[in-house]
Amino acid sequence: MGRTYFVEEAIGQYLSDLSTKLKPYVTGLLIGQCSPQRDYIIRAVRTPPKEEQKEDNISPSKMASVDEEWITTHASQVSRMLPGGILILGVFVIATPELSKDGQNALRRLIFSVEKTLTKRRLWKSAEEEVSDRAALQICSATKKVVCRTYDVRDPKSSAKPADWKYQSALSASWLALDCTVNVNIHIPLLATSPNHDLEKNTKNGLNRWSKQIEDSVFLINGQVKDDDTELLEGQKKLRGNTQSSTQFSDVKVLTQLSQGSSHRSTATVQVCSGSINLKGAVKCRAYVHNNKPKVKEAIQALKRDIINTLSDRCEILFEDLIINEGPHKKSFEREYHVLPQRLFVPVAGSSVMLSDYKFGDEADGEIQERFVEMLDQSVQAEDIHIAEEINTVDICPVTHNMDDTQQKQVTKATLLLKLQQNIGVVIAAAVAVFASIFSFNYFSD
Fold it and tell me: The whole model's pTM is what?
């Protein structure tokens, strides 16, 4: 039996409008949430036209000429604008009858290409039990016939499976949100043995280590630790009337472990470093789950991934901005302070799921509005743009690149001193043990 996609009713009208405006075909992304029980599609977003296509609204005449790189780049940009729990679940194409035969082949290529690009960017891995099917939606612009199939993106040889596409009214209003603020203070050393200062690569490695801390953290939902398999809303009273807001948001606290526990051996390593990167600040995180009996495990997983994604995405955006403004081959390595882009949330009419984006301090609201139109085909009012947090910073601290003999001796001396202190610790521990045994013997002898 194939999967069933429950689709926001307004998406049907959106796709119908696209079919009349753009010829001979148009592609786009399907956005929503999947679960073992049900899959939900809450948005469809067309692929933005390239500059040469904007004036005449004409796409290339053959499906074989679909620009995979352009579409996957769009998917990467859109994924940054989605809160936790909301994913790109598939791809659609609306084509004339003459091109319909090539539609499924094009969709299959796009689905695997988009998923490969998105997976490469993530600092987390999908669990084995998670749904790995992605939707391929094909619509004939003349007959309006809808054909939905799925592909298992974990299997490159996967064949198409039929799926149901069912429209449902007010689907976007039935969501629960989890909010939290996470204080970040990440220190990432830059090793002197590194042939060059690849700040982006070093930062990603540091964030990888930090993401494992987030995965192992304890999450308090409204002040309580809840069992993974319990329902998120268990124990909450259902209020009468139209007062859903009391159950729409859950406040979450994240408790990060300071140590790995007694089962892990803790070791100290002395490394010669040429500098460090420090990420500091408080990041606002949010995840959404559909209110159809969601489990605590699903909600916490969505929030964990938003915490990891939001910091990783900001660093990506910062380095992209630095490359644009300073060039990719910057030679000097001096102490620098950079401000990470701030997160903002934007409400969408008829939906309880807010969209997200990131804003540098010198960006005007007009630039944010243009980005929403281009990336999500969504008009946004300036007064609806809500900055969610204070400024977060990146501090890049170098030390002298070429150390003289005195500095090298100091490093060596520090290393030897550390080893000596370790040895002294062992000697003292042994002495204490001997003294304890003598004392015990004498005490019992008396």
Answer: 0.83
